[in-house]
């Protein structure tokens, strides 16, 4: 029996609950309203149109609601879509929102423990206090937000998972190159994308906020460090604070990518490289999972529109990979 | 009688007081120390070497001191330089430092009045309070600092003078284009380079500070606005504050020039254009004053190494231009 | 009662005169001809299709005609369009073409007076004679042509209005920076885009001419200056003429934008900056008028595809702005 | 016996006539004047300094004079230079200037005949008349000027020789690709660099003129075509003339290299390619003649600072190559 | 009577044999399969759709088959397309595939003779042996493959024809510039694109192979030279072989275009220039044949999206040109 | 007692054995020969000049010899140099060359063992055999050569040490991201720079060879893989071999850096990133060791001329770092 969106093929009839991930109200040629919807669960996303929407429909069917959907899966222009037969709002408490959305491979609790362990390794007192203060302030969102609107780690907990991946790599680099300051590298790693909790609107229907558009997460987080210093009585122009602020503002590596200064610290250069490495591996892996061995992926926007080849020779390696 | 550096020609003997603008201690081939000095007064700058410097000389002759200098002006490799005959520290109180350094064409008092008048025209209350708070905090340095290490407005009061020039242009643009918000444009103009009071070390022997190198005046000033908001109880994420912060961070226009975001407000685009226009006119004028009509200037680094032609036809226009 | 295109909403029936601004003859899938029309008046432009066009229809309904149109306004793919019910050519003399096309905010007479005043301020005799000669030759077109095919000042009189806006800014710059030669700057300003009267086909249905495509308005105007000099007996290699020609050929600022030489005169650099400033303000304002406060504009092609934000905070400033 | 500059090696004493190709008057550290001279004959160029120059010396020893020079050849910083022992102006009429300067491999008479033959092949009447008119006007300079200040074809007659080389290639291309219009390609070829007779000062001590700096040879020649048309009663906006003007203004291929329009005619694209090909071959050959087989040349500025390898395998091919 | 695709106009009914050049199996909205076909003969290509394709149809109608097609020519969205009425596979042996595909203007025999003549002119023994070995190995494909997937010389024999065109130009350049080594230039010319026989899948339905995508024809041919040397006992690190390998790897001219080294030999620079020149002329000519005199071509992707103008003045030149 | 070059300060007299690392024969202004020498031991390098060199001196004092040097250390233009008093060739067998040159932090034996262990982990049979074959062929040079002429790992064994550093990082990445194929990543890592044993001349007096200049180590190693396949009977166009060849040719990441193809395999992208990361960390560390805490390094050419800051705060971390 078909229970999830990922099970559907062209021609299938089905009935099961799904999430309204995105809902746009539009006007048809006949001047009536319709809803352009993205349905989602934790396995896939599919589009569909709800025609002749009444004022009540528009009020009821908003993004974030779970609906019990009866429909048919169809192929159109080479892509699957949903033909809606009936659709009604699920009773409150029947389903948890969490069942319908994609999550990080680790639980929030697991990630929380790893973060705590990492903060413990920041032995420089000022950096430790600043990181602790800001994680306390934004911790709720940190474990829920995605790391990006799309591209990579675009799921609940993606921000935390991406941060942890970089921190793991960072620890290995510190082992191999003892000249690297682990406190600084970890403090920078933990804070580098935390501003995304202000830059983005949240894990569902993710949009850029006004601060996100006009300031960006780099400037936002720098401001948050300044504000934190005022509250815990650290001078934000101390050399140690300036070093940490530089870690944040330089982490995009190039001015063209939005860093007002390019890295001028060994640790800042490494943070930039590891950030890019984790994002790159994740983007390629995500794209490769959509195609079969022996094929090229779609062009990946975030990697200069390159396509990547999934070798037949390595087919067995791609089983059971998490995101 | 020769009284100023600008009077000297190759072969002249002279005796008058000058400022030690820059002093580097170096070791000669014979392993003795010598001082590589830049002498300056308000008319010109000339280099000279003080050989066989004793430990006492090194202690006495530091940048910022005024000396009574007896010397001869010589031509070397096509440039004038000073051959030092005798040199002694001027009595304290004999000369004011101000006599020996280049100043803005307006007095500090004149500039202060104009700034006050401009702040008065910022009618939006939050912007007015933020600007007022920050000018009170940095006003001393604002009227003393240069606008740049070299290139343009590199003299005492240059920062204030450059800011006023842009503000004058801004007012004219507001008259011609009523859709421009004058409060926002003036608030952004007044604050846009104020971070240079932290980025640079001061009006003499100007160097980049650590904050200047690792953060830059754009990020510094954004942090100062955040800190100011905390102190005067304004939420730094209010739309009005976000707009003002965007004015600062976007004023270099391009990511490549250090702006983490490109202008996304009409007023931000205008501030960038006027900043560039005033700097450009000033750089060209400074270079043109060094050559005769009918000649091309030296290549101007800040203008893509272009050379500019001083027409014979316009020779009379270049008399008596200030800065 | 509905009288203008800007009044129409989806579902409205209407009958009023409009201009055929653009008419393309095409063949439908059934092999019959149809007309793809852009209707216009001085308030808006809307597209519509005239099906099954006879040979006579094709001959009658050409761009530039005014028709009495009976139709219905419909929404299609999110845009309004006209469903034509009946359409007939308006009697000659019933309507003036001028009623149906967008004009500069100033009348031709007002602009003519301002231009005369500006020419009067060009006190250098050769420049004055050349400018006077060329304005006499092209004055008719100068006051009718747009300043560009689209982007900015794309209306009747746009070329003159754009030229005057720059000239106004230029006068203010000359007041603030006395080292600028006002004669040269104004002469260059008045001529800089005059070549567009040859580069473009005219104010309606604007296209690039062959000269426009293969030579461009920069080279065209340089040739016109050479030809003018021959007719009024000035040597086109005189320094003064070379300066003026340089003003024209350098006004795009960068080789990449079609200037064969980058600016090498202070006045040429300023002309380039003011040209860009006026075009930029105009493009942003035009885009902002299409969206509500709190929204971002569409991407603006001429500004590197940037979007601009219309602040809620400044909403009251955008009332009653011209062009 | 040593008779030419190319014969000299470090340590040689010599006495023979040479040309003063370049003479700069400078002031030595001891405040006396000296002359920095470039001596030349048709085999080589070598620098030397004439110390303690009197006012009479400065007046006598100017660029363009032939002197009887007694001197010694020395090695300094890895380069040969002349130590002047005595030097006196050669009697007028003793030597012809031509003996001392480098010339094109063909005589002016040979080149004149080839040019005439090429003009004869321009069968389109307007292009033929324009080319004929302009060659009559500038023919004297055309056969004397170099094709560039340095880089390539920087000798007497270089402009004509470069033009003929391209024209030869052009004829071969027309044979192989009959779709190419030979009249247009040859007319464009003959005129494309003719503006250098105004852009440059002449074959000796070559400098850019004011027109050269502010307009450039591309714009200069376009203006000359316009002026020519006026004098021979051709409308400079005829399609044929516009095509020819486009050939000139597009021949640098890229906006970045000073063409206000990129090629939009097959013939314009070919002219650009052949111009580049001839210049490239000539630059590489010139550089390769300065090094031995098995070595790399110096970096060639005009070819993106690339170095080229002279293979041992091909050593025999490089004998007796002209220019 | 209509016999070829190029004869068809909108509304024509026809029946004649054509080639299935490309066939894609897709699923329609009604979940049935259909075939998206490109029909071709040696005069033109036209698209059409075969609806409701059975499993047998899918098996029968594959690319490379000749079918007897009854259909109607229709205009859709401004382009001609085929409405299929009946379609059946042509009897084997009824038609030769060659009748339906575009060929080089020369026969394979003619091209073979010219290639033999060229190899004869490679007088350096190692280069001669390597070229002979590789042409023997790949000669079959060399005379059948296109020179590119699309863009230029995209027909049977295009690779050989493009190679010969360059070789002809190369011989002319060697005549004009005797310093060029003809053996090296011809050996490099003959081999430069030979790797395309491995990079591409063949003359019909041309695709990139895995080697083509991951290595490219430049690296492929370098490897082939190394392998050839092993088989005919030449050391692949001999200077002569290194020169030849450099000719191949540098022929794209710029790193950005896939050459791992830029040209460092005179002959390598020339090969790059002539390769580009022949491709450019061919692309422009191909585009110009699709439009009438007085019009601009479509934008040409391979030439930076430029459009080219077909002058009225030159209309008579474009008759009877071979591709 | 002073025993090593690193001990010397300006003014010191000394006598100890050193290596002649580089010797250039030049001619002085007095026409006599002299030797420009770089002296080296395993602690430092210093320049000196040997004047009036006889033919015998030139024959004796060649690069690679150890000499017993009596001299004085002097400061000149801010840099230390050696004034040679006496210098004589050390007896053969008195000193081992190894004493005087910088080595990798690991012994050759240690590195050999690690390499063997890594090859053991390449479980794919074809890759294992190819790697084994090529390491057997080039192993001697692999453990002696530097990884670059200068920049980073420019010492004996640098190539092997750099390769091992990347391989260590690669193993960690494989642990963290199980979707990465470790065999392919390690095989590519081990071979990626092996071509430098042909591109460079050796560990002392390192120069580019002709193959290095005209082909580069990327193309060289691709050719070596092809040749190896022929010798061990593997088809070089097998998918597995194509994958490995792609790892080599794509490892510079960008066409601009000499890769004829950009990475199209996950493993190729990772190899590129880790190669860059190790080189970057090494370059920064090398530069930081030359300056004191609180200072910026010199500009690093290989990192876009950026300078890096050595924080006071982290001073204790930089003790005892290897290479």
Automatic annotation (TrEMBL), chains A, B, C, D, E, F:
Q: Tell me which InterPro entries the record gives.
A: HD/PDEase_dom, HD_domain, HDIG_dom, NA-bd_OB_tRNA, YhaM_exoribonuc/phosphodiest
**What is one GO biological process annotated to this record?**
rRNA 3'-end processing
Instruction: Please give the Gene Ontology molecular function terms for this protein.
Output: exonuclease activity; nucleic acid binding
HD/PDEase domain sequence ranges: 155-289
**Which Pfam families is this protein grouped with?**
HD, tRNA_anti-codon
Please give the start and end residues of each transmembrane region: none
Keyword Phosphoprotein assigned to the entry: answer is no
Listed SMART domains: HDc
Record keyword Transport present: no
Keywords annotated in UniProt: Exonuclease, Hydrolase, Nuclease
PANTHER family in the record: 3'-5' EXORIBONUCLEASE YHAM (PTHR37294:SF1)
> Under what name is this protein listed?
3'-5' exonuclease
